[in-house]
Amino acid sequence: MPVAEICSRGVVIANPDNSLRTVAELMRVHHVGSVVVTRDDAGLCRPLGIITDRDIVLALVAKDVSPDAVSAGDVMSEPLETIDENDEVWTALERMRSRGVRRLPVLGARGELVGIVSADDLLELVAEELSSLARIIGREQRQEVSRRSN
C-alpha cells in the first residue's frame, strides 16, 4: 500500500522566520505535535525541516529562552527525512526505524509537500491488519466446529 493512502493531507506548516511562539500556537490550535517548516518555491510548498513539541521544550524551556527570541529555522530538524507518496508503507516504517524519527513529510512527484505520515498512522494500520488476521482465525475455528457438529 502506498504511503499516499494513509498519510494525513492536512499538514500544519510554518515559515522559517516564524517565532517558536507562533509555531507552538499553531500546534495548540491544530492539535498536532509537529509543524513542517516550508518555503514557497514557484508556487510549490517545499519542506525544509520539522519542529516537534519536544524540540520546543528542549530549545526553550530547558534553556529558559524566550519563545520570541528563536525562529523556526533555528530549531527545525535538518536534514529532513522525507518519503515519496508512492513509496510503500513498509518503506516508511523502515525509514522511521533506521533514522529514529516518528514522522515523515510525504512528497509529491515535483518534491512538493503533500502530506505527513506518522508512527501513529503506521501503528493504526498494523493494528487493523492484525485485527483482520485475528478475525480470520476466529472464523476458521467457528467453521471447523460447525463442520464437526454436522
Automatic annotation (TrEMBL):
Keywords: CBS domain, Kinase, Transferase
UniProt GO molecular function: kinase activity
Keyword Membrane: no
Domain CBS span(s) in chain numbering: 7-70, 76-132
InterPro entries: CBS_dom, CBS_dom_sf, Diverse_CBS-Domain
CDD domains, per the entry: CBS_pair_bact_arch (cd17775)
Name the record gives this protein: Histidine kinase
Species whose genome carries this gene: Immundisolibacter cernigliae
